[in-house]
Structure formats: structure tokens, C-alpha cells
From TrEMBL:
This is FAD-dependent oxidoreductase. The keyword tRNA-binding does not apply. It comes from Extibacter muris. Residues 7-338 form the NADH:flavin oxidoreductase/NADH oxidase N-terminal domain. Its cofactor is [4Fe-4S] cluster; FMN. It comes from the Bacteria. Keywords: Flavoprotein, FMN, Iron, Iron-sulfur, Metal-binding, Oxidoreductase.
Length: 661
């Protein structure tokens, strides 16, 4: 299909607003918000850049109606008329870039962090949030006040020049969503009990908004097509309510799914979740309303988006993380440049998970998130003969960046293929999508004229003979095998080698040492490879039953892994019968046994394993940079060669090193 002729890129009328196409940017928490409730330039830049890239509309997440009840950290506000001029500057920038701004107007309700200030969050009932703060039941009088605050915030959004507003009553989350869901709403008055009563709050909010804005000013509403939790709202409930939302004054429905605490992986579907998580529910809801229905939830291929719109399944799509990966997604798709689209790998990385090293929203594959205009795409002042040692994610990103800026780039790779440790990381079930990163970088590298030499184990002498102007060392990391008693006396097997396919585990009892991503993915892969119903007559190597044990020193498995990935994997490991030992220190190993120490100091032997695998992480590997600095004018070390970390750091550092050549 030529995208220029696709329905996805045709206009859509929503109230008084005409959208230029049917792609919207979904609301996402960014953590670039300001303490005073305004929109800082860095935050605004993220949305303006996506507007420039052709997105039909952009939604800024969580604009609160009452700063006394903050959402997560600093919170953008529209709770005062004094904020309108500054917000108008933001809206005008988005409009000038060719799109329209839709603020998501919210009251965080039970999810407010006000509990840290000893102020109980407001909820329909008593509930405990993720911070272990208990909400108090909001009074009828307070309900009416909050409803008026929603109306006033909507008025300010229109005065600021926004194209419309979005309301959130999905995921049993925030105040409207909590009222709507039987998982949170335990009231025994007119706002509780039956479905109509639970919907009363959001319908009154919609009606109040309509009274405060122009007759056709667009109101979007995000709902869960199915909360996918026992005791939660179902698709049948939403089929009943959707026409009522339309009658109250909603102009567009955005269908999500899941619940914030019981099923976050359905709200932010990452690894192992299928594309188009909420398409069925959205299609069914579309049948009972006369307003546009958009779907959101892992719509990470623009051709798939075009197909479901073309077939009339939905009227449009709301896309989040893929627009972080490539702000020009829509423009590239419209021009049919699909290979040029930087793909989202559904990794659940820094776009979702915050850390001390990465406290704000970033993207593994796009180092410019949060720095939209800091690195102009201009040629380098002086082309250099550049050597990249290593073709993992960091080396590939460095090679692409350098070549696209005009440098003469050669990559030496000791292996026979690109990818580095990513070749290991994508083996476990559900992680295949991350191969898209390297497929894309390989496309760009070839397009930019990068020369590859495989099977080349670089030495200082080779580099000296090559005589580069600059070298970027991206030699990655090696498996970490600590000096545990027994590792010198007995053969050591590593999870890394298993995931690389250097040996197989056909059956038997397996102990994996470690509880991080590598160890748990190894356990998951061992379980996936076990096929008790498969057999080969007359051979000892028949694949059969396996029993897996994990030993982790920390109090829990998968520390630092985002919850949408962590929770499903833990369920899978437990369902597979994996014996999980946390708070357990490894003291000694033999060829079949592991001696451990429990948290109370007691020691015991775990015995009778057919395989013991070390999955205790990696250690940086940089055998070259020290000597190269003696004769190469410019030497940079990036990624795991500096310190073993996530692939994102390798790609970000590869980009920055290459850009700075």
C-alpha cells in the first residue's frame, strides 16, 4: 500500500478539530516536568519534535487540576489562570510545527504522591497505592469541587489554544478511573455500587467540561476496553458505557486495557506481548458509538496501524514508545521509507524504568530523547579515517553516526556477525523484537557506506598498520565468574555460552547462579527448550524434562527490570516450577553441587545438578585502548568496554563519541 493513499494519512474531523492524519502521540510520563507546574522547554521540545515529524496530534501526560495533589514527582498544572499564557506558548509551538496539542487533564486521586507530605490521597474508597500510602474516601462535597476544577482546567486549555483535551478513566487509575472500577470503588452512596453509579463521576466531569468550553471543542476519553483483572470492568461493561460517554459529550474514545497494579503489562505491553493488545476491544466498542475510536497498546509497526485503519477496525491509532524511538515516524511512513524508521524494540527500558543514572525518560535506540535539538544533523567539519572495534549495539551506533556525518568508517568485528551481546539477549522467548534495532542500524550502516571486516580480532599492531585518525573501542564485556571456591577445580559453564548456543541442555536438573536478567532469561530459555513430548528413538540426547533452580544473593529477582517485563517473567518461572532461592550467597561449587549461605547465616549444599551455569553478570573487556592511545590521535571507549550495563548506554555513548569526532 502506498501510504500517501492510505486512510491512516487522511484527515479526520473530531468536533471542531480537523486532524491531518489518524496517528496520535499517546500520553507518557516523561519526568521533565517543572516544580512550578509550567512546561519547561526540554519537555515541550519532545512534543514539538514529534509534531514536526508529522504526528496528527500530541498528548501531554497528566496535567493536573489541583497542584495540592501532585501526580508523579513534579506535575504540569492547569489549576490557575496565570498558567494559561505559558501553556499557550507551548500550544502555539506545536501548532506551528503542524500538529495540535491535547493536554490530558487529570486528578491523580489515589495515585497522588501527596502522602509523602502526610496528606492522604483522595480516592473513591480506602485504597493503597504503589507508595503504600492509603487514600481516604472523598466526600460528596469534595466530589463536586473536583468536578468544577475539571471544568475550569478544560476552559484554560481552550484559552491556551489547545486543540482539545483528553480525560483519563482507564486502568482503575487516578480519580475517574478509580471511581469507575469495582476494584477500587467500594462506596455505598450514589457514586458506588452498580456500573451506572460508578460511572457517575466521570460522566459528571464530562458534562461539566462541556459547560466550560465551546460546543464543539474536542473531548477525548481514554478507557480500558477490558481491565483484564478478576473483579474488574469487562468489555461488556464498556459496551454499555461507551454510548453514555458519547451522549455526555465525548468526541473520541481511546481504548486501552489492563489495570495499573494488577496488570501493568497490559497497559504498557512490552516483551512477549502481542502487537495490538486492545484492537479487539476497540473494534467492538466502535460498533456501538458514532464517534471516532482509537486504539492504543503496542501498535509499534506503522504498516500494521495503516492496515487496521484501512479495514475499518478502528478510526485511528494512539502510539507512544515508537514515537520516542523515531519522532519522524509519520513523515517517513508517509514517504514509504519504512527501512529508515528507527524501530521500537518493546524493551521496557528507560522510557519506562527510571534509575539514578537515568532519572528521566530516554530511549535505548534514540539518544536524542530529552535532547531533541542538541545534536544537529550536519556534516562533520573534517572527515576522519575512523576505526570502530566491535559491532555490538554501541559499535554499530557509533559507525552509523560517524558515517552519516561524512567520516570514512571501518568496523572490525571478531565474530562473524553484528550484534555483540544482543545476539544473546534476544534468545529468550519474547525478546526477538530487539533484533529490529540491529536490523535498522545495519541498514543505515550499509546506506552510509560503512565497511565491515568480520572475523577480525583486533591487535594494537593491526590498528597501527591501519593508521586511523580515530578509534572507538566497543569491545563489550565478558561473562563474570567470581573467584568462588571450586571454579578452578571444576569446569565452568556460563549462561552467556548457553544463550549463544555453544552447548545444549536436553534434560535434567539445572542450577543457574544469579537472579538478574541474564540468569532469569537463561532459566526461561531452558524451560522453553524442554519438550517432554518430543523424542528421538534410540538416542540418549532426547529432549525431555528439566528442573531449574535459581540462586540469587539479592532479596528479589530481576532487580531494575521494568515491571511490565518483570511480572510476566516471574509468573512464567513460577509456573515452570523453577526453585527460587533469594537472599542466598554462593560459597562453593563442584561439578554437581552448590554450597550456599542463607540470610540467617546457615549453610547448606544444593545437590544433584546435571548442569551448573554462571549467570552472575558481565565484566568490561577492553584490552586495547591503553596501548592505542600511544599512537592514535583520538581514542574513545564506549559501552560495556567501560562498564557492563544495559545496551542503551552503549548506543548513547557510541552516538556521542561518533558525533564528537
Amino acid at each position: 500500500m502506498d501510504m500517501k493513499d492510505s486512510k491512516l494519512f487522511s484527515p479526520l474531523k473530531v468536533g471542531s478539530l480537523t486532524l491531518k492524519n489518524r496517528v496520535g502521540m499517546a500520553p507518557m510520563s516523561m519526568d521533565y516536568e517543572a516544580e512550578d507546574g509550567t512546561v519547561p522547554k526540554k519537555l515541550a521540545d519532545i512534543f514539538v519534535r514529534r509534531a514536526e515529524g508529522g504526528t496528527g496530534y500530541v498528548v501531554i501526560d497528566a496535567v493536573t487540576i489541583d497542584r495540592n495533589y501532585q501526580y508523579i514527582g513534579n506535575t504540569t498544572c492547569l489549576d490557575s489562570d496565570s498558567l494559561v499564557p505559558q501553556f499557550k506558548e507551548f500550544a502555539d509551538r506545536v501548532s506551528a510545527a503542524g500538529s495540535t496539542l491535547i493536554p490530558q487533564i487529570i486528578h491523580p486521586g489515589p495515585e497522588s504522591i501527596c502522602g509523602f507530605r502526610k496528606i492522604p490521597p483522595l480516592g473513591p474508597s480506602v485504597n493503597t497505592n504503589a507508595n503504600c500510602h492509603v487514600s481516604r474516601s472523598i466526600s460528596i462535597e469534595e466530589i463536586h469541587t473536583v468536578i468544577r476544577q475539571f471544568g475550569a482546567a478544560a476552559r484554560r486549555a481552550e484559552e491556551a489554544g489547545c486543540g482539545g483535551i483528553s480525560l483519563h478513566c482507564a486502568h482503575a487509575y487516578m480519580l475517574p478511573g478509580a471511581f469507575l472500577s469495582p476494584l477500587r470503588n467500594k462506596r455505598m452512596d450514589e457514586y458506588g455500587g452498580c456500573l451506572d453509579n460508578r460511572a457517575r463521576f466521570i460522566i459528571e466531569v464530562i458534562e461539566e467540561v462541556r459547560r466550560n468550553v465551546s460546543p464543539d471543542f474536542p473531548v477525548f476519553l481514554r478507557i480500558s476496553g477490558d481491565e483484564r483483572a478478576e473483579g474488574g470492568n469487562s468489555l461488556e461493561d464498556m459496551l454499555y458505557l461507551a454510548p453514555k460517554f458519547e451522549e455526555a459529550g465525548v468526541n473520541l474514545l481511546e481504548v486501552s486495557g489492563g489495570t495499573q497494579y494488577e496488570g501493568l503489562e497490559y497497559i504498557i505491553p512490552s516483551q512477549s506481548k502481542r502487537i495490538g493488545m486492545n484492537i479487539y476491544e476497540a473494534a467492538e466498542i466502535k460498533k456501538v458509538v458514532g464517534i471516532p475510536v482509537y486504539a492504543v497498546g503496542k501498535i509499534n509497526d506503522i504498516r500494521y496501524a495503516a492496515d487496521i485503519v484501512e479495514r475499518g477496525i478502528v478510526d485511528g491509532v494512539s502510539i507512544g514508545r515508537p514515537l520516542l524511538a523515531d519522532p519522524d515516524l509519520c513523515n517517513k511512513a508517509y514517504e514509504n521509507r519504512f527501512d529508515d524508521i528507527t524501530p521500537c524494540g518493546s524493551c521496557g527500558g528507560s522510557c519506562i524504568t527510571r534509575s539514578a543514572q537515568s532519572p528521566q525518560c530516554r530511549c535505548h535506540i534514540n539518544p536524542l530523547v530529552g535532547r531533541e535539538y542538541d545534536f544537529p544533523a550536519v556534516p562533520a567539519q573534517k572527515p576522519k579515517k575512523t576505526l570502530i572495534i566491535g559491532a555490538g549495539p554501541g559499535g554499530m551506533y557509533a559507525a552509523v553516526t560517524a558515517a552519516e556525518r561524512g567520516h570514512q568508517v571501518t568496523v572490525w568485528e571478531a565474530d562473524d556477525t553484528i550484534g555483540g551481546q544482543l545476539n544473546m539477549a534476544v534468545v529468550s522467548p519474547g525478546k526477538q523484537e530487539m533484533t529490529k534495532w540491529l536490523v535498522h542500524l545495519n541498514h543505515r550502516a550499509k546506506k552510509a557506506g560503512v565497511e565491515f571486516v568480520f572475523g577480525k580480532d583486533a591487535t594494537a599492531e593491526d590498528v597501527k598498520g591501519f593508521a586511523p585518525d580515530a578509534v572507538i573501542v566497543a569491545t563489550g564485556a565478558r561473562p563474570l565468574v567470581p573467584p568462588i571456591k571450586g571454579t578452578k577445580e571444576y569446569p565452568v559453564l556460563t549462561a552467556h555460552d548457553f544463550l549463544r548456543g555453544r552447548f545444549v541442555i536436553p534434560k535434567g536438573r539445572v542450577c543457574v547462579l544469579g537472579g538478574g536478567a541474564v540468569a532469569c532469561e537463561t532459566a526461561e530459555t531452558i524451560l522453553a527448550n524442554a519438550r517432554p513430548t518430543a523424542f528421538t528413538r534410540g538416542y540418549e540426547a532426547s529432549i525431555g524434562d528439566v528442573e531449574v533452580t535459581l540462586v540469587e544473593m539479592l532479596p528479589q529477582l530481576l532487580t531494575g527490570v521494568c515491571e511490565p517485563n518483570r511480572a510476566p517473567m516471574l509468573r512464567k518461572l513460577k509456573k515452570g516450577g523453577v526453585q527460587i532461592n533469594v537472599n542466598t550467597k554462593i560459597l562453593e561449587v563442584t561439578d554437581h553441587d552448590v554450597k550456599v549461605q542463607r540470610s540467617d547465616g546457615t549453610e547448606e549444599w544444593l545437590k544433584g545438578f546435571d548442569y551448573i551455569l554462571f549467570g552472575l553478570g558481565s565484566r568490561n573487556y577492553d584490552p586495547l585502548s591503553g596501548s592505542l592511545k600511544e599512537f592514535v590521535p583520538e581514542v574513545h571507549v564506549i559501552g560495556d568496554a567501560v562498564r557492563a550495563r544495559q545496551a542503551s548506554y552503549a548506543m548513547w555513548e557510541g552516538f556521542e563519541a561518533a558525533y564528537g569526532l
